[in-house]
Amino acid sequence: MLLWENMKLALTAIRVNKMRSFLTMLGMIIGISSVIAIVSIGDTMRSMFANEYANIGLNRAICYVMKYDGYYYYGENFTADQVEQIIDAFSDEIEYVSAGEGGKVTGINGRKNYEIVTTGVRGGYDKVQKVDIISGRMIDDRDYEGKKNNIVLEEATAQELFGTADVTGRTLKIKYTPSGSSGDVIDDFNIVGVYRNSQSVLMRVLGGTDNSRGLAYLPESILTDIETNGMFSIDMFVSEDAPATFQQQFINYVARVTNAEPENVRYSSAEEEMMMIDSMMSSLSMAVGAIAAISLIVGGIGIMNIMLVSVTERTREIGIRKALGARTGDVLTQFLIESAVISLVGGIIGASLGAGVVIIGGTALGVDVVVKPSVMLMAFAFSALVGIFFGLYPARKAAKSDPIKALRYE
Amino acid sequence: MSEIIKIQNLQKVYDTGAIQVHALKNINLTIEQGEYVAIMGQSGSGKSTLMNILGCLDRPTEGQYFLDGIEVGKLSENKLSLVRNKKIGFVFQSFHLIPRTSAMKNVELPMIYGKMHARKRRERAKELLCKVGLEKRLDHLPQELSGGQRQRVAIARALANDPPIILADEPTGNLDTASSVEIMELFTQLNQEGVTVIVVTHEDDIAEFTKRVIRFQDGQILKDTKRGEQ
Lengths: 410, 230
Ligand SMILES: Nc1ncnc2c1ncn2[C@@H]1O[C@H](COP(=O)(O)OP(=O)(O)OP(=O)(O)O)[C@@H](O)[C@H]1O
Ligand SMILES: [Mg+2]
Hints:
heterodimer; A: alpha+beta; five-stranded antiparallel β-sheet; B: alpha/beta; Rossmann fold; six-stranded mixed β-sheet; 29% strand; binds adenosine-5'-triphosphate; binds magnesium ion
């Protein structure tokens, strides 16, 4: 009961002294809003990267062989036979394999030139990876086996080159350099399909220029002849049902087939990478958040300062309350609650401000913002705690004051 | 009649470091339940000092003070707060209302500290403000009231927990004659209802309202006269 009365009292005190209360809260507002903004930006980035990796496929892995001779250098390419042997040995676990070929090419439509980043694919790519085809079809096995000059463009690339996304069935001249060849080749390609990229603007920017210009898919056999060039790396999608020991088995097998030491076989999976980036970002945002939290101390000191002024100003009031029967604890609670409420209100304003800025910024960049309610609640609880901690000294001063002296205070 | 206040060999010394002020010297005093007392004397004679001790705001340096049979000098701070809350109603010269707080809220305050239920508390506050003639000023803030009205709010507040004793230190000191008379008439009415009223005053006109006058000089009782004895 007294708690509620004290809260009302504190809110009244805040209302009566609007400007002063605001200035007192400013430290908390700035501190909490920056902490919330930083933590939310961190959480948003983490969820974006998690999405990105979900797009790439968490079960994607790349394997290649290094050589060591006092220092590391790239080993020889896998031969087509070796690749076949490896795939056969793990036919249950491996869902899709490619050489991971790709690179920049130039698309030419009349006088319009446009740089396109390509990925060489085989049939079945769209089974392991989401490709949002909006017209036509994806590259298939016949394209790959027959080395057909077919290409699938991203919607935005089609817009850029043709001014429309409705380009399935049309022809595009492409200038490219096949692997192992010394000069550029210009060829006509049939556009067999158009897909839509669902990446956010920010993610494209973060992905660098490569991803900002939409990826085009073409048969890998156009870019490289595996029979003669072999494969630098085995770029594969591993079945989700693969046993936990798959990675080690695979490395050992590759080492045996290629006559390499197992420790020189490099195997990197998207999942591992993602977990690394995730933990890196979470510790980074935690560290920056902690630095921002220092400003909360400044905010707390501001509150302590004003509470001390307030206690002095209200000396007489404290005396009256004691004369009317307020116990030491009642006065202590009154002032503690007052500073906690000031701090909490500051915290709520700050948290809303921080979250608001992140949400507005995220919306402008087309990002799905992550503002965790648990983080907000923690910020509220923490700001109330700051208020209680820094209010303790002024409140004790008020509670201990002698009623007679307080009543005589001019 | 029972002795509500009993003081034996009471001394009060203020120790200000350099000098010691002997504010009360060997006071012996008994006040019965339902008495109407005026305390008079020169400035600095120790009247307020005595009132503070009677009101459990201060403790005697030496001697004993029994309030309703309990020796309060030995009570803890929190027990003293409880005694003030339940047994004493204070009325001060400068009103001492809580600023920026409505008349209602001011009157409710002792009941809040007395842990009375909110609805009952509000009813009683309204009732008391009606009793002192302020039924039209319930939600006024102290700064919106005249001196006499403020003092009436203070009296309503002093009555909140229905205490047996009202201690009023120069309650009319800041009021004009008309308001002073109104306030004293209110005290007289309360005393007729059975409340022990102790009023400090400098004015004989005010003391006229009471039934017993205690004169102080230099921290000692000079004269203690009951009406009709003289
Ligand atoms: N807190 C204190 N510290 C030191 N001396 C004090 C203190 N309070 C009162 N005194 C002294 O005690 C004496 C009695 O003071 P008290 O306030 O009781 O006088 P009073 O009779 O109420 O006077 P007045 O009529 O002016 O109100 C005075 O000499 C005063 O200076
Ligand atoms: Mg006095």
